[in-house]
Design brief:
elongated; ATP binding; single chain; 4-stranded antiparallel sheet; 6-stranded mixed sheet; ABC_transporter-like_CS; Rossmann fold; 2 domains; transport; about 300 residues; Alpha-Beta Plaits
Length: about 300
Amino acid sequence: MQTIITVSKLGKTYASGFQALKGIDLEIRRGEIFALLGPNGAGKTTLISTICGIVNPSEGSVVVDGHDILTDYRAARAMIGLVPQELTTDAFETVWATVSFSRGLFGKPPNPAHIEKVLKSLSLWGKKDNKIITLSGGMKRRVLIAKALSHEPDILFLDEPTAGVDVELRRDMWQLVRSLQASGVTIILTTHYIEEAEEMADRIGVINGGEIILVEEKAELMRKLGQKKLTLQLDHALDHVPAALEQYGMELSADKTELIYTYDAHDEPGRIIALLRHIDEAGVKFKDLQTTQSSLEDIFVSLVRETA
């Protein structure tokens, strides 16, 4: 797949000496949804702001579809729509005026039909004549997205787009993101909601301490790093794990009514068969069994802990 954003050896050190970004290399593919995960202070917003030309890098480069973000700023920035975390809007302007004005900032001619389409897609058409100050927080968030889409960008950055919004609005935004991707827009989102990345992303990057510690296809990440658990619900509580099962590293639950086996998702299936045979030979009786696989949140927490 063709690359639309190339980040090379990007670094950012502030006057205080704080190093927010450390030699970041990253490629974003045209048409994908890329989720950037990381704890607070990891560098997510600084990275997005630098790619968008809001923060000047201390070193390295960012190229957006062939345009350098520093030497060819206007062309690069015109390709990008940015939805920031903060609800920064012109409080006393109407929805229609503020979204139309944003389009003009990028030198685009008036296009009422496009603005109408954007507002309708965000369920804002009925609020088009309302002043921003009268809107709820969720509606203001929709206005920010409308502003970012007003100039028909090829790339959309969503920095914590669903922070502080209700579940229904979050689902609406996910649907909008999918429709934008279907129309050819490349989407990069940062999020604290792990389920958001798990639901939406094609690829996932994890940033911690100003460094990218992993970039992977979501499905491949789950396959390579995900763990499965086989849980046996016992007929009777056990005092200890039978000696014949110690080689598998099995553990008893706190109430001693379950035996738990943790294994890599890509382990040989024959090992499970052998385990079940040894369980039978050890005389362990169970009434039910179930398997569960690590969520993306489990993987994320594990990765961040390793690099802390």
